[in-house]
Amino acid sequence: MTRTKRTLTAEQKKLDANLWIIALITMAVYCLYAVIGSRCMEFCKDSSISVWPRLFEAAAWEFGIAGLGITVVCIIRKLSFLSFGLKKENALKAVLGTVACFVPYIAYIVLSGQFEGYEPLSIMVTPDLYKAGILTTIIGTLIVAIVWGFFEGFNYAVIAEFVSRRYPVKSKFFDWGALVCTIMGILFHPIHFDTLGLIDFVTTFIALYGMMMVRKCTKNSWGGVFAFLFIWNAL
């Protein structure tokens, strides 16, 4: 008995190509970072050097891993960022729903004694930005918000959308796009194989998977952007 080979539609082939472009660009940047990243981070942490080249280098690496792939695809396909849920409709629901999903993770961070202060829009060069004057602080913080906040959160939204459209499901509680992005987030998150590590894994899974399901239900991506601006990178 021969099995009939399923023929992919033009849309499915396009979605596959989109995902491969994102994956290859991301992995290329990540592999390059694995080779020279340590020296670059030494440069970025050196306070004796002007803050601007250090900020731009750190931002370039971050954007390359979480932003460049989806930007290239959107340019090639002539897709607007707005078409991926960046709209006013259901924005408040998306933000509140996402925050609710992060409550267990926030509680874990606080109760496990890992909370060292709430620092949104803060990266390794932020202290030097604050010392460089008000204009530098404002512009530098805006760059941090765009790269580490907007693009990190929006990157997940675009990838989830492509995966969900490529592998659609009818379930209200499961989505392949949400699962793939959750696994991506966990893989970039330190994992410890002990009791606290298990709790960390579970709460992180709830936060990220919940965030992506909120995006799917509300068809709004601002919740994920809010999470990376004011929760994920701020604790």
Protein architecture, described:
71% of the residues lie in helices and 0% in strands. The protein is an all-alpha fold. It is globular and about 60 Å long. The model has no long low-confidence stretch (mean pLDDT 93).
List keywords for this structure.
globular, 235 residues, mainly alpha
Describe, in short, the structure shown:
The chain is mainly alpha-helical and 235 residues long. It is globular, with a radius of gyration of 19 Å.
- Total E-strand runs: 0
C-alpha termini separation: 57 Å
Mean pLDDT over the full residue set: 93
Following the backbone from N to C, one meets helices and strands in this order, namely HHHHHHHHH
Instruction: Provide the β-strand percentage band.
Output: under 5%
- Unreliable stretches covering 5 or more consecutive residues: none
Helix content: over 70%
Largest sheet: none
If helices are DSSP runs of H or I spanning 4 or more residues, what is the number of helices? Answer: 9
How large is the radius of gyration?
A: 19 Å
Shape: globular
Structural class per helix/strand content? mainly alpha
Name the assembly state.
Answer: single chain
Summarize the topology.
Layout: H1 10-45, H2 51-65, H3 68-77, H4 91-111, H5 126-131, H6 134-166, H7 176-187, H8 195-218, H9 222-232
